[in-house]
Amino acid sequence: MKLAKRVMTLTPSTTLEITAKAKALKDAGHDVIGLGAGEPDFNTPDHILNAAKDAMDKGFTKYTPSGGLPALKNEIANKLKVDNNIEYKPSEIVVCSGAKHALYLLFQVILDEGDEVIIPTPYWVSYPEQVKLADGVPVYVEGKEENNFKITAAQLKEKITAKTRAVIINSPSNPTGMVYTEQELVELGEVCKEHNVLIVSDEIYEKLLYDGNKHISIAQLSPELKDLTIIINGVSKSHSMTGWRIGYAVGNETIIKAMTNLASHSTSNPTSIAQYATIAAYAGPQDDVETMRAAFEERLNVIFEKLNNIPGFSCIKPQGAFYLFPNVSEAAKLAGLEDVDSFVKVLLDEEKVALVPGSGFGAPNYVRLSYATSLVQLENAVDRIAKYMNKVT
Ligand code: PLP
């Protein structure tokens, strides 16, 4: 069957692929521990569930405005004021079917053929594909391990050309868990201002910070940076609402309006019930957000040392999100395997532990482990990996 050129090179999301493979093994009766998933393992808090049920009972089951319910936009504006100290008008906010959809719409409306988007590596798997789907060109900048996987202003400057339209900043980062400091953001921002480059600030892991780290949005640093930044956020990770599919983009009114128009001809609107649930998520108590964050931090602290003690594993301690991103090139070598992709395959086949290979994130010497699973499962998984390494070394 002939397909459009635009999707010919499209690869499936590595994360979803490994999760599906682990699930298939599980369904076939294997005792698989999946550390691939990028979603909190907690249920959505009760008051949010109740708001959704209430919305259904009240008949709020119809189309909504394409860019989202005014009441939800107001809650998002309020959240941005309280959490990030930035004022936005409802016309500068578009609610989408997940942050992924917000990013998709954004690249569709800001990129023309050949426009470049600077993507720091390691990157979240969907960024390059989404840029390419909008006829854009991903330009990679290496976030070096010795700089905690972060790019510097000098590196960014070096990659800017007449075609550069935007740079993506994802802090806290998926897959590394690293967080940019205020000073680093100021320096990156200076380069963007100088060259009039848009900043796509993906802040979806904002609420998951450890060791006393505080979230800083680059948009809050100055009015000029606010004007250049499109913030991407949502409730998937903060409120354990991955399946509800609510995310949003915030920033320049013209861009937001174009995104809303595009949504009106594709998805129409995010699910009405999920929008009402999100109003409750933002307007209601935030205790569950903190309880989940604290649970992730506890797991991180238990598992981090153990992981680093496995022969051939070397990992920097993450400051946010819920991923560990160890360098395992040495482990693959010790096991006599060709590369890390083969190592991941062997761990799944022999030890029934599912990790995501770093190749999908533009960092082939690494693997991503999600600690969004119980401590018992995590310890069990690390024991299995250690057992395997002890067997082969
Ligand atoms: N951005 C990053 C960095 C992510 O890791 C994810 C989800 O994995 C998303 C965006 C998309 O989140 P959502 O569930 O809101 O589409």
Automatic annotation (TrEMBL):
Identify the enzyme class.
transferase
**Sample GO molecular function, one term:** transaminase activity
**One of the protein's GO biological processes:** amino acid metabolic process
Q: What is its EC number?
A: 2.6.1.-
Write down the required cofactor(s): pyridoxal 5'-phosphate
* UniProt superkingdom: Bacteria
Kindly state which keywords UniProt assigns to this record, in alphabetical order. Answer: Aminotransferase, Pyridoxal phosphate, Transferase
Q: Which family does it belong to?
A: Belongs to the class-I pyridoxal-phosphate-dependent aminotransferase family.
**Name of the protein in question:** Aminotransferase
